């Protein structure tokens, strides 16, 4: 049986390091120009355009984009950005239906991550490990649904402009955050929606909240991934705090790609972690 793992670019994995996997790009529309979140995008130029733009938005991948990524695999595991934030899950489900109708002996498992960024990346790693263990496809799908409930996403944001533009938070909250230098601490809810936890002046208190939320969630020593939008110093500080409090051994730091850069904005940090 041939397997393939497919995920959209909200996972921050544009150049797959995993065999038999591929990233399906999302799109950012900046002042009418379509920026495709793939390996060809000049991320530095994109970020400049994003800061200077008057109008912006995002667009999901097409059904044909998903179909092309499925290739000729007999079994596909497809992980998408939260359906509460994007139509990409719905697009992937339509692709699944078409693919399975065209190839009746093939199967696509579409998984709404209810999240983005580091949590998605950890779920991709989990699928990879389960395939390597020789588990059958239906059992893998069941385990990934369990893993979703034991994997969390927290974030610290210094700007909510793009979330407000896309109707995810109130424009008033976004305006106050931008004017007062506030750091917003939040999470991806169980429904996959933006959920604010606290607001702070300064990053030190925000990071303290992150550690406390990890502990409340039952975190002890699972995998952690930190994604940052041009804020490596902050990511390193947060990594050190997590290591000191939880003695975590496996913490990965990555830079956000275009889609996560769009929502995290300059200085934003996203944190995914597994609860064992």
Automatic annotation (TrEMBL):
Pfam families: DegV. One of its GO terms (molecular function) is lipid binding. Coiled coil: none annotated. Transmembrane segments: none annotated. The keyword 4Fe-4S does not apply. InterPro entries: DegV, DegV_C, DegV_domain_contain. Keywords: Lipid-binding. May bind long-chain fatty acids, such as palmitate, and may play a role in lipid transport or fatty acid metabolism. This is DegV family protein.
């Amino acid at each position: 049986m041939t397997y393939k793992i497919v995920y959209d670019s909200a996972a921050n994995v544009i150049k797959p390091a995993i065999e038999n996997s591929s990233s399906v790009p999302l799109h950012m529309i900046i002042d009418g120009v379509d920026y495709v979140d793939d390996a060809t995008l000049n991320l530095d130029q994109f970020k400049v355009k994003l800061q200077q733009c008057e109008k912006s938005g995002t667009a999901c991948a097409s059904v044909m984009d998903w179909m092309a990524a499925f290739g000729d695999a007999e079994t596909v595991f497809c992980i998408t950005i939260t359906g509460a934030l994007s139509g990409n899950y719905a697009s992937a489900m339509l692709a699944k239906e078409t693919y399975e109708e065209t190839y009746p002996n093939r199967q696509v498992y579409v998984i709404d991550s209810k999240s983005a960024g580091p949590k998605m990346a950890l779920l991709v790693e989990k699928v990879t490990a389960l395939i390597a263990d020789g588990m059958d496809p239906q059992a893998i799908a069941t385990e990934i649904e369990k893993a979703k409930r034991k994997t969390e996403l927290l974030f610290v944001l210094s700007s909510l402009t793009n979330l407000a533009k896309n109707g995810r938070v109130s424009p008033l909250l976004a305006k106050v955050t931008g004017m007062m230098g506030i750091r917003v601490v939040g999470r991806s809810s169980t429904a996959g929606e933006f959920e604010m936890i606290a607001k702070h002046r300064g990053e030190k208190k925000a990071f303290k909240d992150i550690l406390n939320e990890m502990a409340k969630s039952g975190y002890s020593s699972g995998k952690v991934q930190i994604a940052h939008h041009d804020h490596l110093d902050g990511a390193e500080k947060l990594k050190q705090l997590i290591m000191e409090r939880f003695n975590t051994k496996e913490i990965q730091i990555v830079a956000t790609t275009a889609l996560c850069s769009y929502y995290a904005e300059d200085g934003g940090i996203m944190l995914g972690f597994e609860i064992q």
